[in-house]
Amino acid sequence: MEVLVHYATSNITPQQTLKEVSVTSNVLQKKGPCNFLVFGLGRDSLLWSTLNHGGRTVFLEEDESWIRMVTKERPGLEVYHVGYDTKVSDADELLKLGLQEECTSVTDPRESGCRLSLKGLPDQIYEVQWDLIMVDAPTGYHENAPGRMTAIYTTGLMARNRKDGGSTDVFVHDVNRAVEDKYSMAFLCEWYMKQQEGRLRHFTIPSQRTNLGSFCP
């Protein structure tokens, strides 16, 4: 009820369209309550947390001032700051590196030799078995922005390294942009894509810990 009141009385609407939100919402209805990791703290964060009522929803955000502002208003949200050392202008070079052997080995992201692997997240982020992961950050709309290259790659690696043998539903927003388009297909794999609605792609990635093969079928 809280989330309905919030959006009914606010001039701010979620960053995704209703049809895009419905893709993730439908999966949450089947899997929830569950573990849901979201790259990005946005206007839709309360929505995701509420849709996963009874589960654990964690947000990773690059902007510390924005974290302070949002958590002051919504102290119940679980949010962690994360830093990025890439730029959108690096995307083509990093994509080539990502196809090399050290980047196609399934391992804990903290132990990966791949430059695309995010190694500085809180330890608990690597240790939780995430049922859903949403990539809607970091900033990626200009050349000097960090871009979502490492977020997308690391998401794919965490899904493949899942210890319980289950699968992870992954959602990437803004696939109308080059980085989100190319990286989601390269590291989440077209074979694993279940649906695209507007600017949102949905992938279901199985664990590969006990069945090591190619990164993509």
Question: Could you write a compact summary of the structure shown?
Answer:
The chain is 35% helix and 18% strand. It has helices spanning 2-8, 18-31, 45-51, 64-73, 91-98, 123-127, 149-160, 178-189; strands at residues 35-39, 56-61, 78-81, 132-135, 167-173, 193-197, 200-206.
Topology:
Layout: H1 2-8, H2 18-31, E1 35-39, H3 45-51, E2 56-61, H4 64-73, E3 78-81, H5 91-98, H6 123-127, E4 132-135, H7 149-160, E5 167-173, H8 178-189, E6 193-197, E7 200-206
Parallel strand pairs: 1-2, 1-4, 2-3, 4-5
Antiparallel strand pairs: 5-7, 6-7
Question: What percentage of residues falls in helices of 4 or more residues?
Answer: 25-40%
Q: Ranges with pLDDT <50 over ≥5 residues?
A: 1-9
What best-fitting shape do the alpha-carbon axes yield? globular
Report strand order across the widest sheet. 3-2-1-4-5-7-6
Tell me the structural class.
alpha/beta
Number of helices: 8
Write a structural description.
- The protein has 217 residues and is α/β, with parallel strands linked by helices.
- Helix content is 35%, strand content 18%.
- It has helices at 2-8, 18-31, 45-51, 64-73, 91-98, 123-127, 149-160, 178-189, and strands spanning 35-39, 56-61, 78-81, 132-135, 167-173, 193-197, 200-206.
- A seven-stranded mixed sheet has the order 3-2-1-4-5-7-6, sandwiched between helices.
- The protein is globular, with a radius of gyration of 16 Å.
- The chain starts with a helix and ends in an 11-residue tail after the last strand.
